[in-house]
Amino acid sequence: MSAAAMAFDGVTKQFGDFTAVDHLSFAVPEGTIFGFLGGNGAGKTTSLRMALDILTPTGGRIDVLGNPPSRESASDIGFLPEERGLYKKMSVLDTIVYFARLKRMEAGPAKQSAMALLERLELADWAKSPVEKLSKGMAQKVQVATALVNSPKLLMLDEPFSGLDPVNQKMLEDLIADAAKDGATVIFSTHVMQHAERLCDRLLMLARGKKAFDGTQDEARAALPARLELASRTAPDALPGVESAEAIGTAEDGWIKYDVRLNSGVTPEQLLEHCTTNGFGLRSFDVQTPSLHEVFIHFVGANEEIER
């Protein structure tokens, strides 16, 4: 297994009587895209701020790039905060270069990297414009550029898609994927399942500061009972391993479509083998992959504020 770019070991953070993060343990393998998933108040932002040494844990241990959190590692980290903050009077290019210089980049390489990002983000024509002239979405892209300008080893993005339209959300997804291909470890928090579904190698699901799940998307989906859609002339609810079968429509020639849920531990392959060997007629047999939204509800519950 790859070395961990970031690891929490029994980390707790309390604000007075309120526990924001509760004995949280997980590891982010190097080179992965890792999703922090949870509703508002789940502990995502607090966890990232502790990893950045902005907040101090009440208890437990954190390692970032092999060391305790420290401002000294700033040159290897890119961070996009949930609360955006840019200097409104400063030009777009100078803003990105300024953040690059804070991360110990030399002026020349900083400007070159900033311009390359502005080209990629379709903002090159705005390089000399003050930030206050930008739309909210454009300013968001400038903030993203400040996180990427130093080609960080570890990229942390807190709700990075907030405020972006679908076109720019796709552009940001491509930037995240490219950063990972170039060797960066990417950690981003979100309450929108579709972005995590498309991007993440591994997931951490949080609920009220506690870990609800930690693993790959395949491992998360495997925890749910299998579900499939089949067409038959006979109701399949009496077949072994079937938990429920609901008729959802009719096909031609009297075939009926069923939404079938299997008991835990029973696989679609086992049911198909039984149907084949016992002469149970089938017109179609399609395995339904659970969405990440369904997986999240399974582990965390339906009361969290999330989006599909």
What does this structure look like?
The protein is of the alpha/beta class. It has two domains: 4-221, 3-Layer(aba) Sandwich (Rossmann fold); 225-289, Alpha-Beta Plaits. It has helices at residues 44-51, 92-102, 107-120, 136-148, 166-181, 193-199, 217-222, 268-277, 292-300; strands spanning 4-15, 18-29, 33-37, 59-64, 77-80, 154-158, 185-190, 202-207, 210-216, 227-232, 242-250, 256-262, 284-288. A six-stranded mixed β-sheet has the order 5-6-7-3-8-9, sandwiched between helices. α2 runs parallel beside α4. The longest helix is centred in the middle third of the chain and has 16 residues, at 166-181. The radius of gyration is 24 Å and the shape is elongated. The protein starts with a strand and ends in an 8-residue tail after the last helix. InterPro entries: AAA+_ATPase (IPR003593), ABC_transporter-like_ATP-bd (IPR003439), ABC_transporter-like_CS (IPR017871), ABC_transporter_ATP-binding (IPR050763), DrrA1/2-like_C (IPR025302), P-loop_NTPase (IPR027417). Belongs to the ABC transporter superfamily. Keywords: ATP-binding, Nodulation, Nucleotide-binding, Transport.
List keywords for this structure.
308 residues, alpha/beta, Rossmann fold, Alpha-Beta Plaits, 2 domains, six-stranded mixed beta sheet, four-stranded antiparallel beta sheet, 31% helix, elongated, ABC_transporter-like_CS, nucleotide-binding, ATP-binding cassette domain-containing protein
